[in-house]
Amino acid sequence: MKINDQITCVITGIQPYGFFVSYEDYVGLIHISEVSDQYI
Fold first, then answer.
1. pLDDT digit string (tens) for 13-23?
2. What angle do CA 37, 39, 40 make, to 5 degrees?
3. Which among 1, 10, 13, 31 could disulfide-bond with 18, CB atoms 3.0 to 4.6 Å apart, if both were Cys?
4. Cα–Cα distance between 15 and 23 in angstroms, integer?
């Protein structure tokens, strides 16, 4: 995996500040500001 790669991952949790995701052996947080400029 490299910077700017697009991957399909599994959302394992949703919080007001972002999404917890898992992909293969990786687990992480995607901050809400990285998801969309529109209301989610």
1. 999 999 999 99
2. 105
3. 31
4. 18
Write out the DSSP string of 1-40. --TT-----EEEEEETTEEEEEETTEEEEEEGGGT-SS--
What is the domain count for the chain?
1
Residue type, 29: L
In 3D, which of 10, 38, 14 has the Cα closest to residue 24? 10
Q: Which domain holds residue 12?
A: 1-40
